[in-house]
TrEMBL record:
Belongs to the TFIIF beta subunit family. It is found in: Nucleus. This is General transcription factor IIF subunit 2. GO terms for biological process: transcription initiation at RNA polymerase II promoter. CDD domains: TFIIF_beta. It comes from Oryzias sinensis. Keywords: DNA-binding, Nucleus, Transcription, Transcription regulation.
Length: 255
């Protein structure tokens, strides 16, 4: 069962309007350095050509403290930060606060949204550069007492290459068989299936090149006419050697 939390709604009764402002990180860090009753800065609101202009000026005391990322004392935190005003839109937003005793209070509803942007100056660019350098990972060089054995070491030959060479030697070189023997193997193969690729014929016949007695075709005419009998009568001379044809080429019988 969820715990119920009481919320102090004094801000609603007082109809407080608050501004929701996005500020740079270094500026919020400077505000944290201020004392409980200290001044963090001033806001100036004016109009120029009918448009409202808002600017926040950081106090001289906080600007003199320097940014947390600064290593060079000569780098000064920018003081002037003009606001870029934005519309609230159709949203209803509110600001809550939590005390040390975990009491939650409603401070008010958001009536204006803005983004606090600093004037681009040399000091601001230095601060941004220091911030980028502070988040970079530090490289560490460490000397190892023993060699790491979990990585792959260079080898003269890989296992799959050695296995392939053994298989190749065990099968031996392809010796050209007698023509009639090859014919018998082809007849026996084509009695089982109608079409074969070059690779399959090489595996069946164990011959280096088959120049005959099949007809080679690379077109879509890869089916025998329907009126031809299913039995094999004869083979015609092949047009090209097996080794010069692509793997997807089919051999078909012409009757």
């Amino acid at each position: 069962m969820s715990n119920k939390v009481e919320v102090n709604l004094t801000g609603v009764r007082q109809s407080k309007g608050v501004w929701l402002v996005k500020v740079p990180k270094y500026l919020s860090q400077q505000w944290d350095k201020a004392t409980e009753k200290g001044e963090v800065g001033k806001i100036t609101i004016g109009k120029k050509q009918g448009k409202t202009e808002v600017c926040f000026s950081l106090s001289e005391e906080l600007a003199a403290l320097g940014s947390a990322e600064e290593k060079d004392a000569s780098v000064q935190v920018p003081r002037d930060h003009p606001f870029t005003m934005q519309t609230v839109g159709g949203q209803t937003m509110a600001v809550f606060s939590q005390s040390d005793t975990d009491e939650i209070s409603l401070e008010g509803t958001v009536v204006h949204r803005a983004e606090c942007r600093p004037n681009v100056s040399e000091d601001y660019m230095k601060i941004k550069r220091l911030q980028s350098e502070s988040v970079k990972p530090q490289r560490l060089s460490q000397q190892l007492d023993r060699a790491i054995t979990t990585v792959f070491k260079p080898v003269a030959n890989h296992d799959f290459n050695v296995e392939f060479e053994k298989k190749k030697k065990s099968e031996g070189k392809m010796v050209r068989a007698e023509r009639q023997v090859v014919m018998d193997m082809l007849f026996s193969a084509f009695e089982k299936h109608q079409y074969y690729s070059f690779k399959d014929l090489v595996d069946i016949t164990k011959q280096p090149v088959v120049r005959s007695p099949c007809t080679h075709s690379t077109t879509k005419q890869n089916q025998a006419p329907a009126h031809h009998p299913p039995c094999l009568v004869k083979f015609e001379q092949i047009a090209h050697s097996m080794t010069s044809m692509p793997a997807h080429t089919l051999l078909w019988l012409k009757f």
